[in-house]
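Changelog note: in this version the structure field was regenerated for every chain. One regenerated record is shown below for reference.
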Amino acid sequence: MSAPRYDVLAIGNAIVDVMSPCKDELIEELGLVRGGMMLVDMDRAHELYDAMGPAREISGGSAANTLAGLSALGMQCAFIGQVADDQLGEVFAHDIHAVGIDFDTATRAGPPSTARCLIFVTPDGQRTMNTFLGASQFLPADALDEELIASASVLFLEGYLWDPEEPRAAMKKAIAAAKAAGRKVAFTLSDAFVIERHGDDFRALIEAGEIDILFANKVELTALTGEDDFEAGIASLAPLVPTLVVTRSEEGAVAVNGAERAEVAADPVADVVDTTGAGDLFAAGFLAGHVRGQSLRHCLAMGAVAAAEIISHYGARPEEDLKDLMKKRFG
C-alpha cells in the first residue's frame, strides 16, 4: 500500500452557516424544535432569515467543520462536496481553502443555490439549526476521484449527506474505493432523524464491515440500537464495529476498540457560548490522534480539548490555536 497523500478526506454537505443569537421566546414564536436540526425549503429559509437579528456567515457543514479542526491540528485534508455557481458557493470555497483544505469539486450550474444553515443560538448556548440543503444534495457519483479517495489514510463520511439519493450513491462508491485501497472508513451518524430514515442502511454497512470508526452521541446510540440504557447500547453496538466512539455532552465520551475501553470527562468550559460543531470538533481531535497512532484514551482526550474550545465561542471553526491547546494539555 502506498503512503497516503492525505490524512483525512471527507465527503459532506457544503453549507454556509448563518448564525445569530436570539431569545428563547423567538424559538417558540417561529415554531422551531429547540436544540434540534430541521430541513427547510427555500421559502422557509427566507422566512427564518428575515426573523434573525445580526448574523455571522461562515462556511460550515459537519464534515467540513471536522476537517477545519484537523487542518488546525496540522493534518493534511481534502474535501468533496457540492456548491452552486453563486456567491455563497464562492464564500464556501474561499473559506475552506483559507484553512488549508484542498477542495476542487466542480460547481453546479443553475438552481438550487448553495446550501445554508440558519442557526439560532439561545442564551444557554444551545443551537437550533434549520438547513436548506440546496446544491449540496446533488453531489453526483461521477464527481468523485477514486484515486484521490484512495490517497487518504481515512475517508470520513457525514451521515447528514446520506439522506439525498445522489450523494448517497456517491458515498457508497467512495466506501468501495477506500476499502479497495486498504484505507479506513469513518462515519458520523449526525442526528437521530437521519437514523430514523436510514437506520437500516447504517446497520447494514456496519454488519458488512464497511465502517471502521463510528461516531455517535448518546441520543444517536439509542436511535441506532433501540436501547434506552447507555451501557446496553454500547454492549449492543461495540462488537459490530472496530472502533466505536460515543459522546455524552457534559458527561464526557467513551470509546471501545475490541476488548479495550476508554473514557474521558468533558473538558471544563468557563462559559458555554454555542454548542454548534461540538461533535464535529470532537471527531477532529479524535481522528488526529488516531492517524498519529495515539492510544484510545489519548484520542478521546484530544477530542475533548477540541470540543471545549469550540463551545466557548460562536461558530463551528476554531478561534484559538488548537496545536497550542494540545501542547499545553499533553506536553
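Spot check on this record: Residues 165-180 form the longest helix (16 residues). The domain at 6-13+62-83+99-104+138-330 is CATH 3.40.1190.20 (UDP-N-acetylmuramoyl-L-alanine:D-glutamate ligase).
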